[in-house]
Amino acid sequence: MYRSRPEGSIDREILNYVSSLEDDFVIFFYDIIGSEAHMIMLHEMGYLSRRELIELLQALEEAKLHLKPIMKKSEHEDVHEAIESFVVEKIGIGKGGMLQTARSRNDQVMADLKMKVRDDINEVSLLLGDLVESLLKRADSNKETVMLFYTHLQHAQIGTFSHYLLSYTESLFRDMERLKELYARINQSPLGSLAIGGSTFPIDRNRTASLLGFDQLSVNSIDATSSRDVIMEYLSCLSIIMITLSRISEDLILWATDEFKYIELADSASSTSSAMPQKKNPDPLEILRSKSARIVGNLTASLTILKGLPSGYSRDLQELKSLVFSSTATTASSLSMLRLVIETSIVHKTRMLEIAKNSFANAIDVAELLTSKGYLDFRSAHKLVGSLVKLAISKGKRTLGDLSGREIEQLFQASGYQIPLEALKEIIVACGAENVVTLRKSKGSPNHSEQVDMILHNKMRLTKIRDETADRKKAIDKAYDDLSRIVRSYILTSESRQPKGHP
Question: Which of 9, 49, 141, 273 is catalytic?
């Protein structure tokens, strides 16, 4: 189709190697509406007659109905060539040959990619919101569910399951904020930049951008056609999302083991063993962990493709499409899967409390109370409580509360601490697993009132972000609907003018 200088046909094996048709199925629709907007603009600028425009639009509308046969023709290198070939076959080279006037595949593919990615941003944002909503619901019903928090996978402090769940809503909110910021950079039209240096036709780039729902233009023609940093940013956002989902999955996998028994996955979210009948495996979560590595790999591959390219378009950029499309699909399915796991999992509250009660994770709270009540500076309190923990372990005790008064007095005598024994025992009791969370005063702690505030605040944040996402989606839908109405009005006007009995 495009072979003007080279003679003959491209070698079939070479064509198969360079063709992107398999990946281009995803952007077929975007390429057609981009062409329709471009043709309307050319007509309004006086470069196409009304009759030419109508025939072009009719052919493009017909192309929408023939996706598979068009895309399966093996003689084409990409979707742009395939659609142009279809149009030329329908209405002839005289009119169909105008399809590429004042544009190139270079600005076309970037426009297609941006339209696809901005839709993907909205889809992923909605799925993130659904997951956050599920986490908030589970958090609301687990504000009093006491559990251990871990650092280095060792007992650290006592908190609540609600606080844990809310921690990941914060990460996911940041993911949505990143996508929102990126959307503004994605939603800039490159159309009209041509291959790299613009056109001699004084085209109206703003009109085309408006028809397709773009907010702004990618102003510099070199940047518009050859830069892919916003695509890298999108893949980076997806990678960060998947890493967060992978970390949640790892927690749930650990906590579903018999050793923890903090949670149990629903039967509908579990797999089994082909040999061991007792098994209930967290396979979906394990698959998510591995899929997250693929998304990070796609980002790395994309960065590596770009790192050595000169300015201007290079065909290497074609390889980014499959990486972007597969990353979106994987991230979307992972968000949906994890939401189902969160919603259906069983929380063993009694087990969580039992483990928390039989631990030394309240040690820091005991040390802080010794300091806040004026008995010791914090470092001395830290040392004393550490000695108490060591003593309890040596005596086979499971908690600080299991130490007898005599054992504590012996430690005081050996170390020289001058603290009223009864005061220390009262502090240890006050820091029991079921009570200690209420002692936390700092903003953002697992204190019950803090949980209530966080849940309420995050519900309001979620509503706001969902509204913003809906507004973005409505703006695009309106642009597409308006474009479709314009296309139909031209075609219907033409049909109404045809004489009765016209074939």
Answer: 273
CA–CA separation, 341 and 55 (whole Å): 52
Task: Summarize pLDDT for 201-248 with one digit per residue, the tens.
Answer: 999 999 999 999 999 999 999 999 999 999 999 999 999 999 999 999
C-alpha–C-alpha distance, residues 117 and 126, integer Å? 14
In the numeric block, which tokens belong to residue 376?
């010791």
Q: What is the pLDDT averaged over residues 29-54?
A: 96
Backbone angles phi, psi at 305, to 5 degrees: -60, -40
Rounded Cα distance, 105 and 195, in Å: 7
Cβ-contact 211, 38 below 8 angstroms = no
Report the DSSP beta bridge partners of residue 160.
Answer: 146
273 is catalytic: yes
Confirm whether 152 is a catalytic residue: yes
CB 370 within 8 A of CB 376: yes
Tell me, what amino acid is at 209? A
- pLDDT band for position 176 (cuts 50, 70, 90): very high
Annotated catalytic residue within 152, 274, 442, 496: 152
Tokens linked to 260: 């923890």
**CA–CA separation, 158 vs 179, rounded Å?**
34
